[in-house]
């Protein structure tokens, strides 16, 4: 059946499918998406014969994923169900089975939401330009029926294989004993962390909110918001843990807290993992998005690597990973991408690298990470605006006499010299203007945020 274009395009976004369950996403809708995705990969240059499906712990996920599977099998493709999974576990299954995949999750969004992250064989991303527009157009027009035989459904448990594979990529055998606190936020890390970290004899695991609960009763499963790190920070201090790890709802992003309870910048984690990867392949390429710290390209260059700057967003980084053969990539949002993981992102794999680095030396995490922290940053500040281009133009006019360099790779990045820069970019999906500032001192960051924020908030509302 055909569907209103506006309703479909509101849910099928630039990188994934996401919306309110019952209002924007229901079984009928995802059945059509499944059928359209099956047609896309069945009729590709390298046709697929099966699709692997995983889902998170949200109450709506089993029903929606079953409807999607029904749409896939109606188009003649088989379905392999892996059941409860993190997003990077689904990517692992896509790589292991060399087939396209679909992960039912709304990541860090509230319980009322759900969605689908799609990939081609080998965990290659499906975004607006690589299939989602085709799927959207077909769902709007009505997915044609298939007159061939229906596909079959089978089940496969890949959790233990996933854990074993990740541990094979990071040698942690020589690590000193570590006390590791993990906040799963009632999300999928409660399922995957025991499988990955549990078998490591040098690790004592202290779990926080490991109970799978898609209503997120303790806090939002979004560690990018500092308020959602508070419980872990307190837990680390109370238990005397050497390190704290926090994961988002689908456990593909990992945030790190040191032994004092202080949050570690994802840029510093990017620099640390890059340095480790460059030890085994000198001269390799490392991708970083344009709002990670300038310390990342500096350290990559110093370690003999080649830094490559990317727009913000997993589809851009994954595309550059494939194009350049990069060994690793990192984002400010705590997404970490690995060539050895099919170019896909895995927060758990990044966590293993941090644990291995910490365990290979005697210093506490706070001292070790100081080696990778050269600047202070504001984090991302969002403003709700009606006319973002006009506001950006007015900010640039105010700074015109102080601009050292400027580029427009993603929004506008203004280099003010002496380690100071800011980026302003518009959200792809919301009426938000996003600000990131970096400088050599916290006072300089505050000063710049206050100044730029003052220009922005003249008549507009700060969101977060």
TrEMBL record:
Keywords: Isomerase, Magnesium, Metal-binding, Phosphoprotein. Belongs to the phosphohexose mutase family. InterPro entries: A-D-PHexomutase_a/b/a-I, A-D-PHexomutase_a/b/a-I/II/III, A-D-PHexomutase_a/b/a-II, A-D-PHexomutase_a/b/a-III, A-D-PHexomutase_C, A-D-PHexomutase_C_sf, Alpha-D-phosphohexomutase_SF. NCBIfam families: PRK09542.1 (NF007088). Residues 11-130, 161-261, 271-375 form the Alpha-D-phosphohexomutase alpha/beta/alpha domain. The keyword Phosphoprotein applies. Its EC number is 5.4.2.8. This is Phosphomannomutase. Residues 380-452 form the Alpha-D-phosphohexomutase C-terminal domain. One of its GO terms (biological process) is carbohydrate metabolic process. Transmembrane segments: none annotated. Its cofactor is Mg(2+). Pfam families: PGM_PMM_I, PGM_PMM_II, PGM_PMM_III, PGM_PMM_IV. GO terms for molecular function: metal ion binding; phosphomannomutase activity. It comes from the Bacteria.
């Amino acid at each position: 059946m055909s569907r209103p274009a506006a309703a479909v395009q509101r849910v099928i976004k630039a990188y994934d499918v996401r919306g309110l369950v019952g209002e924007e996403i229901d079984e009928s809708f995802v059945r059509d998406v499944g059928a359209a995705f099956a047609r896309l990969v069945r009729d590709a240059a390298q046709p697929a014969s099966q699709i692997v499906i995983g889902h998170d712990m949200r109450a709506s996920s089993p029903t929606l994923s079953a409807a999607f599977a029904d749409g896939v099998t109606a188009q003649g493709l088989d379905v392999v169900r892996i059941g409860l999974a993190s997003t990077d576990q689904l990517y692992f299954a896509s790589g292991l089975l060399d087939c396209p995949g679909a992960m039912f999750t709304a990541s860090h969004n509230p319980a009322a939401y759900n969605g689908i992250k799609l990939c081609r064989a080998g965990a290659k991303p499906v975004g607006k330009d690589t299939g989602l527009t085709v799927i959207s157009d077909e769902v709007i027009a009505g997915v044609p029926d298939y007159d061939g035989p229906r596909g079959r459904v089978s089940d496969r448990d890949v959790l233990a294989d996933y854990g074993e594979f990740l541990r094979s990529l990071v040698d942690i055998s020589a690590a000193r004993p570590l006390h590791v606190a993990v906040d799963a936020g009632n999300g999928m890390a409660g399922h995957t962390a025991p499988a990955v970290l549990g078998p490591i004899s040098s690790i004592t695991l202290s779990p926080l909110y490991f109970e799978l609960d898609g209503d997120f009763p303790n806090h939002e499963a979004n560690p990018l918001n500092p308020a959602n790190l508070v419980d872990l920070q307190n837990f680390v201090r109370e238990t005397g843990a050497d390190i704290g790890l926090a994961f988002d709802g689908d456990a593909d992003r990992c945030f790190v807290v040191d032994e004092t309870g202080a949050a570690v910048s994802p840029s510093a984690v990017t620099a640390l993992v890059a340095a480790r990867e460059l030890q085994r392949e000198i001269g390799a390429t490392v991708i970083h998005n344009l709002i990670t710290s300038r310390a990342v390209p500096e350290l990559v260059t110093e370690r003999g690597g080649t830094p490559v700057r990317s727009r913000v967003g997993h589809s851009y980084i994954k595309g550059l990973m494939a194009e350049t053969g990069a060994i690793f990539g990192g984002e400010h949002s705590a997404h970490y991408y690995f060539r050895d993981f099919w170019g896909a992102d895995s927060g758990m794999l990044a966590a293993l690298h941090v644990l291995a680095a910490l365990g290979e030396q005697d210093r506490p995490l706070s001292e070790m990470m100081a080696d990778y922290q050269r600047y202070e940053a504001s984090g991302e500040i969002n403003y709700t605006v009606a006319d973002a281009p006009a506001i950006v133009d007015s900010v640039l006019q105010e700074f015109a006499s102080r601009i050292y360099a400027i580029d427009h790779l993603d929004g506008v990045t203004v280099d003010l010299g002496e380690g100071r820069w800011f980026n302003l970019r518009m959200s792809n999906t919301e009426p938000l203007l996003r600000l990131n500032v970096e400088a050599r001192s916290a006072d300089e960051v505050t000063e710049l945020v206050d100044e730029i924020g003052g220009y922005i908030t003249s008549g507009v509302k700060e969101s977060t």
